[in-house]
Specification:
This protein is of the alpha+beta class. It is built from 16 helices and 17 strands. It has helices at residues 17-20, 43-58, 86-90, 99-103, 121-130, 134-141, 150-160, 162-166, 174-183, 191-194, 209-215, 238-244, 257-264, 317-327, 332-340, 349-353, and strands at 2-3, 6-7, 40-41, 69-70, 73-74, 79-82, 112-113, 170-173, 200-201, 206-207, 232-235, 250-252, 255-256, 273-277, 281-287, 299-302, 308-314. The strands form seven sheets. The protein has a four-stranded antiparallel sheet. Helix 5 (121-130) packs across helix 6. It is globular.
Length: 355
């Protein structure tokens, strides 16, 4: 909400997949798995969550007639595979029926590999070799071939299920999938999220053909257009206007959670960095030029500002902290107090004496 120069948050709400949508049988939003390297989620769950969130908005008491634009961020690196019926079906969503049941027929693949999936080591090696090595790939796409990135995931799908890949009309990221549901047609993808795929040329912000050809046949025709993060892709589809009484608000291209977190914490100029301690720990900052780390320890993404984002990720962040907490029988408050009382780089006496 905007009053003159003042901007205020008028509503905050959250939905926990496991608790609010238990019929998908996820744990922390991930389907049960026997192979720890494989991490999949049901895209229908995301569609149903989007439906539920708009229901909450309309029940909140806010004057939704003032809604002028909708955008969002979604987890990076997750991919959604839609079939050839998707274009016509998304354009004809019935406002009297729940969204998820109407999305089910347009899925070429019932599950989505997400950022936690690390089962594509072989595909990473194949893609890198095909384009001239890891350094060549990083020089163009901003990153070495990375197991959690979408390009290797697409290649694995093509190799494991060629018929499913052939039936795929559009490969979306989670962000462009959700934006497409709002538009009622296929949405573009922004450079920030597209740069987490090992497929986009980081400088031209267009698909890099050598990477596409190394990933899967005919991939260019299956990918969304790339558009700047501030692009108005269209307006809310009739489904949302009629189901929830919303105005014909603009839909702005969505992005990924990492690029959005960059601008969300105010990093719009060079010289400052942020540290995020989550499931993965990251350190990131804004870059005016795509300075690619030669050793492959970090990544360069697009930024929603039109600039670039440098990011280094440590994949076992909170898992390591949770293990220490549980091993020593601590609460998070105990854990925090131990950190506060310990000089950086020194072991705390508590951890030296406890068994």
């Amino acid at each position: 909400e905007v009053h003159g120069d003042e901007r205020r948050v008028v509503l905050e709400t959250s939905l926990v997949f496991d608790a609010s949508l238990p019929h998908y049988r996820t744990t922390h939003g991930v389907l049960p798995r026997t192979d720890p390297a494989v991490a999949l989620a049901p895209p229908l769950m995301w569609a149903e969550a989007l439906d539920a969130m708009f229901a909450r908005l309309t029940e909140s008491g806010l004057d939704m007639n003032q809604l002028t634009a909708v955008s969002g961020s979604a987890q990076q690196h997750g991919s959604v595979y839609l079939n050839a019926e998707s274009a016509s079906r998304l354009n004809a969503l019935d406002p009297l029926r729940p969204l998820a049941e109407q999305v089910r027929p347009v899925l070429a693949r019932q599950v989505s590999p997400i950022w936690m999936d690390s089962s594509t080591r072989e595909q990473c090696a194949e893609i890198a070799a095909a384009v001239g090595g890891q350094r060549a790939l990083a020089r163009h796409t901003g990153s070495h071939a990375f197991e959690r990135f979408t390009g290797p995931q697409i290649r694995k799908f093509f190799q494991d299920d060629p018929a499913g890949y052939s039936a795929t009309y559009r490969v979306h990221l989670v962000s462009s999938f959700l934006s497409s549901l709002l538009l009622g047609r296929h949405s573009p993808i922004d450079p920030g999220d597209a740069s987490g795929m090992n497929l986009m040329d980081i400088r031209s912000k267009s698909w890099w053909m050598p990477a596409l050809e190394a990933t899967a046949p005919g991939l260019l025709s299956k990918l969304p257009l790339i558009a700047p993060s501030w692009t108005v892709a269209g307006t809310l589809a009739p489904y949302w206007r009629q189901r929830y009484g919303l105005p014909e608000a603009k839909v702005v291209v969505w992005s990924g959670d990492n690029p959005c977190s960059l601008v969300g914490v105010g990093l719009v100029r060079e010289g400052r960095v942020a540290v995020s301690l989550g499931t993965s720990d990251t350190v990131f900052g804004l870059m005016k030029a795509p300075n690619i780390p030669p050793g492959g320890a970090g990544h360069v993404f697009g930024s929603p500002t039109g600039d670039y984002m440098g990011l280094t990720c440590f994949s076992n962040g909170s898992l390591a902290r949770e293990r220490i907490r549980d091993t020593f029988g601590l609460t998070w408050e105990d854990f925090s107090r131990a950190l506060d009382a310990t000089p950086p780089g020194q072991p705390h006496p508590y951890f030296q004496t406890r068994k």
